[in-house]
Design the sequence.
């Protein structure tokens, strides 16, 4: 089974922290982009055949900025060219400020069964700092409309370690999110990307980020609050009610095959990584793929360790058979544990996952 990602690179306004390949406005290019996307999809079907799809994720940018007819047409094309499982998880990423009851009903009728909403924060001043176009009232309204349209699998994206964000702000955001009873929560620590407006403001001293201890306190506070409310942490940044883990993202973390369509989309098919062009004009002209790379065994092993240790289910001990001493040391330090033949990080280990991975990959397997 394969997962499919479709990138829509348009948004109403670029967020202050965003370095994704996305463009504000450009309404005049939307139709041409969708035609190019359709052609790429046909080319993928010729190359791979009727791929059996277990998940479809339409992300961006802001896919919900487009007319719902565009999403319906994309999904109809998927069914015509590929072979989605009848129980496939089909997600659309949405900005709460771009939704309506009609649009959500159209999504549901088109077969979308999971909605991911970018809530980010509950406080107007923090949303303003981030450059978001929505407010918390629109998040509440969007969730209500989604439920009325028949959605019972809703994710909320939240952000912490924001400039000027206190622990009280973060707890308030968590409680506001939980009051909406989403099935899934993604909690992302702000990463300042070079060249973004937010990075420039921090560098200029106009904004101040919380310290490392404060960030860790926010992360641990969220773990406690969500555990009490029945949300299990299954990946470093992701929490779900039982059985509501994001199946699409699990494909990435377990190095399953996924096909990426659209501008700057990435694919991983049959052990090779493909990257689409980030040049919109080139994409519109039908020049999609910029690069193809076969992953050598050493890099594949490092990826499996790096991605697998992000998951609370961990990785098969067979992957680490060449470094038993390191495994023992990490276990003695309380950073990891071995359960039923699987090596997994403890909460303490998750806090320093990058450092743990560096220790593990110092002992590459013999090929």
Sequence:
């Amino acid at each position: 089974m394969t997962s499919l990602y479709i990138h829509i690179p348009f948004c109403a306004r670029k967020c202050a922290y965003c370095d994704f390949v996305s463009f504000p406005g450009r309404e005049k290019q939307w139709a041409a982009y969708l035609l190019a996307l359709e052609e790429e999809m046909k080319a993928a079907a010729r190359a791979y055949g009727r791929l059996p799809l277990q998940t479809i994720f339409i992300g961006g940018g802001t896919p919900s900025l487009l007319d719902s007819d565009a999403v319906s047409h994309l999904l109809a094309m998927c069914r015509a060219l590929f072979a989605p499982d009848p129980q496939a998880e089909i997600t659309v990423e949405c900005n709460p400020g771009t939704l309506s009851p009609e649009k959500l009903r159209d999504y549901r009728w088109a077969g979308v069964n999971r909605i991911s909403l970018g809530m980010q924060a509950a406080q107007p001043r923090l949303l303003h700092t981030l450059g978001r176009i929505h407010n918390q009232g629109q998040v509440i309204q969007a969730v209500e409309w989604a439920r009325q349209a028949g959605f019972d699998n809703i994710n909320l994206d939240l952000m912490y370690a924001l400039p000027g964000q206190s622990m009280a702000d973060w707890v308030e955001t968590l409680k506001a999110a939980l009051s909406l009873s989403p099935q899934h929560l993604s909690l992302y620590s702000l990463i300042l990307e070079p060249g973004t407006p937010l990075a420039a403001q921090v560098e200029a001293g106009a904004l101040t980020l919380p310290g490392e201890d404060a960030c860790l306190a926010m992360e641990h506070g969220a773990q406690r609050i969500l555990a009490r409310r029945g949300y299990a942490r299954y990946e470093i940044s992701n929490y779900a009610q039982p059985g509501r883990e994001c199946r699409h993202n699990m494909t990435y973390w377990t190095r399953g095959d996924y096909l990426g369509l659209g501008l700057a989309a990435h694919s991983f098919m049959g052990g090779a990584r493909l990257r689409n062009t980030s040049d919109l004009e080139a994409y519109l002209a039908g020049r999609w793929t910029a690069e193809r790379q076969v992953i050598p065994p050493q890099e594949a092993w490092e990826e499996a360790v790096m991605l697998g240790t992000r998951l609370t289910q961990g990785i098969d001990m067979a992957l680490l058979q060449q470094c038993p001493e390191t495994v023992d040391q990490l276990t003695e330090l309380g950073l990891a544990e071995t359960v039923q033949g699987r090596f997994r990080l403890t909460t303490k280990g998750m806090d320093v996952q990058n450092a743990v991975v560096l220790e593990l990959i110092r002992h590459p397997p013999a090929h």
